[in-house]
Design brief:
By secondary structure, this protein is of the alpha/beta class. The chain has 2 domains: 134 residues, Rossmann fold, CATH 3.40.50; 55 residues, Arc Repressor Mutant, subunit A. The chain contains 10 helices and 6 strands. The chain has a 6-stranded parallel β-sheet with strand order 2-1-3-4-5-6, with helices on both faces. The chain is elongated and about 60 Å long.
Length: 205
Amino acid sequence: MTTAPVGLLLADDEHLIRGALAALLSLEEDLLVVAEAASGPEAPTMALAHQVDVAVLDLQMPGADGVRVATSPRTELPGCQVLIVTSHGRPGHLKRALEAGVRGFVPKTVSAQRLAEIIRTVHAGNRYADPELAADAISAGDSPLTSREAEVLELAADGAPVAEIAERAALSQGTVRNYLSSAVSKIGTENRHAAVRLARERGWV
């Protein structure tokens, strides 16, 4: 009896990389790319429409990052396992991914053949995390920020004024200032710009 191939979703906003990966994975007899997406919001829709077995998501995509996207197909499509590939791996990203139920987390430097093996691993219900990223995550420690502090700090990353951040986060300006002040204090920097930079380096936002 022939086993059906593992149906894959590839989500990456870089069309050349996504196309090359699709071509390489199509060489594997037991893997089949059945859907592709170019943005965060598009990925869950495609995963559900095609009932994919494994969603291979880029960490950073327009609209939403891979970790946030990962929660949707897992909620609405319980049998779908999620694997994140990234060129910007940070310890905090790995921890957030694992907390969100992501089964695999690998750098884009991995070979297509190795990626195929990892896809099979997560499809079987097992986990795989890049050893170097895992070691960095252990040594970096947990983020000191609450989810709200991290959200507000991320909104401040592009230098947006407090009024704009407050509108986007649906908070009062005073609350935004309090969150920013608390985040800066916890991270131990002189201002919010330095706090954003350090939090990004550690993958906390």
